[in-house]
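Technical annex, item 7. During the second reporting period the consortium partners agreed on a shared format for inverse folding records so that results from different sites could be compared directly. Each record opens with the tokenized structure and is followed by the designed sequence. A conforming record, contributed by the partner at site C, is shown below for reference.
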């Protein structure tokens, strides 16, 4: 990961620094502004815009973080490189771009995609498992999840079981399709970037640039709650 960061382009390092700012992350020399104040006697933190700093300064700051953080930063660099490769391929060979590839491109180009991140199964459920949190549930939020106390009676599968089942289905050839998938993947504690996210590829009037339309808004679903299988099929 250290080598990947060291070879990263300036634009990628700017993205990483902004990520640390947004999430309030600090390295051995503190946050971004703390780092500048300590290491730049001329400008200090007064020139804090990452775009106006040299690549060497950006890299030096990123390298002040512990290995666990640098490992994650390395993934951001890898994703940026993959996106660039796909975009270059589509530019060089525009006639060879499939509809599926175009959807992936639209998802990856969305400005919010960088901050977070199977083909249609012909209505066949490949994985339909409920996980028992093994903790006391005070609010099932059935009106949102569609899951009630009765649904979890007798359920013994854990989060780990669901993770193992899903990971067996994920590969370089598979694309996950869904709505606001980063939330699902975060809940599952799984990192997977090959996605088509309907929250990103469709626009909705009068929404701020950082907001995305809900699945109900896009599909005009009128049920009181979204059923988990219906939720999946709608995005397809």
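Designed sequence (site C submission):
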């Amino acid at each position: 990961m250290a080598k990947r960061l060291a070879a990263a382009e300036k634009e990628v390092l700017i993205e990483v620094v902004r990520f640390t700012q947004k999430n309030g992350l600090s390295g051995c020399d503190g946050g971004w502004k703390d780092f500048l104040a300590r290491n730049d006697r001329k400008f200090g933190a007064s020139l804090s815009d990452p775009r106006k700093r040299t690549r060497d300064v950006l890299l030096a700051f990123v390298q002040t973080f512990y290995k666990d953080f640098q490992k994650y930063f390395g993934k951001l660099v890898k994703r940026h490189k993959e996106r660039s490769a796909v975009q270059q391929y589509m530019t060089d060979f525009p006639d060879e771009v499939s509809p599926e590839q175009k959807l992936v491109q639209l998802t990856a180009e969305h400005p919010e995609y960088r901050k977070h991140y199977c083909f249609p199964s012909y209505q066949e459920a490949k994985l339909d498992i409920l996980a028992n949190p093994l903790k006391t549930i005070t609010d099932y939020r059935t009106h949102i999840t569609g899951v009630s106390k009765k649904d979890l009676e007798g359920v013994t599968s854990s989060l780990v079981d669901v993770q193992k089942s899903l990971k067996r289905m994920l590969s370089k050839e598979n694309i996950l399709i869904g709505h606001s998938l980063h939330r699902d993947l975060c809940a599952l504690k799984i990192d997977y970037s090959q996605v088509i996210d309907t929250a990103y590829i469709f626009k909705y009037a009068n929404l701020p640039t950082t907001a995305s339309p809900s699945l109900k808004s896009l599909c005009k679903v009128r049920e009181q709650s979204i059923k988990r299988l219906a939720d999946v099929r709608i995005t397809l």
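DSSP finds 13 helices and two strands in the chain. Residues 118-122, 221-226 have pLDDT under 50 and may be disordered. All partners now use this format for quarterly exchanges.
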